[in-house]
Amino acid sequence: MRFIDNIKYPLASAKTSWQLVVLGALVGLVASAAIVCLRLGIELVQESYMHVADDFVQESYLTRFIAPLIGAAIILVIASIGHQRYHRMGIPFVLHRQRKHYGYIPFGNSLNQFFSALAAIASGFSVGREGPAVHIGAGAASLLSLRLNLPKNTTQVLTACGMAAGISASFNSPLAAVVFVLEVVVQQYRIYLFLPIMLASLIGTAVSRAFFGDIHLYSDITIPAINHTVIWPLIVLGLIIGLTAVLFNRCLLSVMERSARISMAKRLPLAGLIVGAIACFIPQVMGSDLLALDIALSEHPQIGFLLLVLVAKFVATIAALGLGIPGGVIGVLYGLGGLMGSLLIWSLIPLFPELTVFAPMAVIICMVAMMGTSLHAPLAALVAVLELSENASIIFPSLLVVVPAILISQQVFGLKSLFLEQLDLQRLSYKVSPVTHTLQDTGVLAIMRRKFNTFGTGDAWWLSNSTIPALICSASNNTEYLMTPQALGYNDDDKSLIKVPCLKDNATLAHAYELLSPRRNGYVVIVTQHSQVPVGLVSWQAVRKHLHREQGD
């Protein structure tokens, strides 16, 4: 463990280091392996009762009706086995833990998320696998960081690496995964974050491709040259996608709020019953997005059938996620956006036949625009559509859709990110002050003073005049440390010794600030996590100097 103790010092700084990059790569490997296990588990379960995995259209009415009910029952059994505090799951929960607990995810939550998501997705609920992927990836990073006793600021970075690896392993889109994590979860672009997160995402994609192949479902879609006749139709598509995202977010949050008073034993079977009943007649609502997008991208689809599938998919998704079925929302937003784009573009084609060649492109753009608008992730949406299509020509038409969608949803209807709305609804805090946010990035080991003296309580008072701070060990408690008022910078005439607060060596400057800010003076003793041996001192002046430098004052 001496090696781990030595690498803690460079990891405590908010800078790129080879140690952080290596740990990011390790997290990417562990997280992507967990996601591969989840995907293989889903396929294994589906192949045990289906002809072709994830193809519910070929199954009987009875199978489509019973599968969600059985899935809901299994999720209830898993929930009853686990502790109540392990029931919170998904990206909103991870976002809360990232902001308020340095990314630490309890192992019980991750375990519950893995098996619950496996049951939900394998049984055909209209939920995505990216939410569980983010949670499981962050949980794997959190567990690794905890085992290695790494600084908490490093844990925060590594959980972001785990999230990126989880998303990239799910969608085969490494760059979009990096942008999504930085834009939605971390919500800051710091240079030292890029390399470890990008490497973790790269490894996630590489591991996924090793098992499932390098599959890009939409790379064969033609991207025609944009002319003036198609600009206004694309802007109209964007406005309607924005309105659809507003409707989706508000309906989902309304169902979640109303169902919160209903016990899980009633909510989950109800979700299974609703989804199963719809799936009996419209199997395209089952699963995340593949079946819905098959209809949306088909040649000359029937307008009436598109509308029917869109409404059914909307209701099935709201019922599943709103009533508490564990799963992600990105995939189903892709499906809803693609269906809406197909419905709109094929409705316009009888009036404007020249739009026919743009139909597949419009479906893909609306697919990611729906996600970007609902989650407030426009840049991630643009990068995703670039990677999905493998054609840079799609960027300009994508902007024509995404920008109006974002503008009308946010500026006219005041739409917030769905994840933040869910956190508010669940009363999970996520806001931190700018000062705390800045200080969380750096560990106490980065600025602590390593030179100090340690003495017993019987030593002479001249120690307070030394240029090197002196710690005085309590005679009754070897883990309690005292200092003179003069050494602490207090103008006290009292000769009594003052107890100095302690922090473990994995703490951040935010912890030190919290302890020192009431008196705006003094020291904090930094001790090792297990033996409680003092290894350094952090002063109020050092914390303040670091804060001013980071904020550019």
Question: Strand percentage, roughly?
Answer: under 5%
Question: Segments where pLDDT lies below 50 for 5+ residues?
Answer: none
CATH superfamily of the largest domain: Clc chloride channel
How many H/I helical runs? Answer: 21
If strands are numbered along the chain, what order do they take across the biggest sheet?
Answer: 1-2-3-4
Percent helix: 55-70%
Indicate the overall shape.
elongated
The CATH topology name of the largest domain reads: Clc chloride channel
Q: What gap, in angstroms, lies between the N and C termini?
A: 39 Å
How does this model look, in words?
The protein has 553 residues and is mainly alpha-helical. The chain folds into 3 domains: 2-216, Clc chloride channel (Orthogonal Bundle); 228-425, Clc chloride channel; 443-551, CBS-domain (Roll), CATH 3.10.580.10. The protein is 61% helix and 5% strand. The chain has 21 helices and 7 strands. The chain has helices at residues 2-12, 18-49, 61-81, 91-100, 107-122, 130-147, 152-171, 174-186, 191-212, 228-259, 264-281, 290-296, 303-322, 330-348, 359-375, 378-389, 395-412, 418-425, 434-439, 509-516, 540-551; strands at 453-456, 470-473, 481-483, 498-499, 502-504, 523-527, 534-539. Strands 1-2-3-4 form a 4-stranded mixed β-sheet, with no helix packed on it. A 3-stranded mixed β-sheet has the order 5-6-7. A hairpin with a 7-residue loop joins strand 2 and strand 3. The longest helix is centred in the N-terminal third of the chain and has 32 residues, at 18-49. The model has no long low-confidence stretch (mean pLDDT 87).
